[in-house]
Specification:
Elements lengths: L3 H21 L1 H87 L9 E3 L3 E5 L6 H12 L5 H7 L13 E5 L2
Antiparallel strand pairs: 1-2, 2-3
Helix pairs in contact: 1-2, 3-4
Length: 182
Amino acid sequence: MRLLLPLGAILFLVSPCSSQAQSGNPAASEDAEMERRKILKAADQVDRVDQQVDQIQSRVTALEQLLTELRQQSQSLKESLANAAAKSSAERAALLEEVSKMLAERKEREKAKPAEKPAAAKTTEKEGYEHVVAKGDTLSSIAQAYNSQYQLKLTAESIREANQLAKGAPLKVGQKLLLPAK
């Protein structure tokens, strides 16, 4: 379209020359006709190029719109991901806090419980007390528990001798020990 105007002007200028050429010389009129055809052919080519340019421009516009939409979607997804990460982090922190509270409450309950080891002891006639070994018990811890509960004067060595245990012999969970009353 843009190039049609100059081509039209050239065609207009060539037309009077061709009419002059027709009146005078037949070879000149053939040359003028060939020039006119070349100009028309060039004008057709310019029209096709203009159409192609218009098509390309419409494609570029469509691609620009698509790019804008994709950028908006990308931004939306980034925001959603950031929100999800923040929510997950907050939930994780709340869960950790809840578990910490539960553990603290459990420790407090365990501290508040009296020692159950001496309560499980049975009194035997004149000999002393019977104790069932629990996980984590040592001769020293057993002696200390019974000394405070029953005002005894036990030592780890006296318990070892009363039960004929070798020095350094390990205690087994569920093992019954005789604790002397004296």
